[in-house]
Amino acid sequence: MSGFVVHSAAGSPFGRSVLATLEEKHAAWRLAPVAVGTLRTPAHLARHPFGRIPVLEHDGFMLYETQASLRYLDRVLPAPSLTPADPRAAARMDQVMNVSDWYLFNGVGNVIGFQRIVRPRLMGQPADEAAIADVLPKAHVVIDELARLLDDGPYFAGTALSLADLLVAPQIDFLAMTPEWSALGAHHRNLSAWLARMAERPSLQATTWERVAALAKAA
User: Fold this and answer.
1) pTM exceeds 0.90, yes or no
2) Is residue 142 packed enough to be buried (19+ CB in 10 Å), middle (13-18) or exposed (0-12)?
3) Structure confidence by residue, pLDDT tens digits, 28-47
């Protein structure tokens, strides 16, 4: 299928999940860059009424919410499948994806990543150290639980890559750019090894902040 357009910004972990999934599917796609300061404009709100990114567009069909986009891509581009056939493995995939959205990003990544990376890099402001300190206890609980769910497996839903890995990897890779990661992930060798495996995948290498920024600049 053709006509995949991803409305997103460089550095967005959620946008990277969609782009990496398209890469895993060997699908052609185009980036429609969205400047962070334009998320509340009428043009973008027409695509996403809650003013967030990414938005997936496919031959005139518009879809927001990253999990919905990933599952849509896995249905319309069935090979290689990124959803386990085994019901329990699929349920584990769903569980990890919800942990990523509700706990890893919400209240952890959106605080630490924003304060350590977005605020100084894009806004020229210092990090709010108190805000970071306040969420660190929750961050440890989330990272500890993800490490427990991963256990000794190569991927979160078993022996094969799934949508869970593609949703979580950009979030943790973003956290790994902060000094807090050394304390959060240092004692979880399984999670560190998983992140290293994910970083070696061509899909993740093709969708780094720098690569997407270059695409946005050329668009």
Assistant:
1) yes
2) buried
3) 999 999 998 899 999 999 99
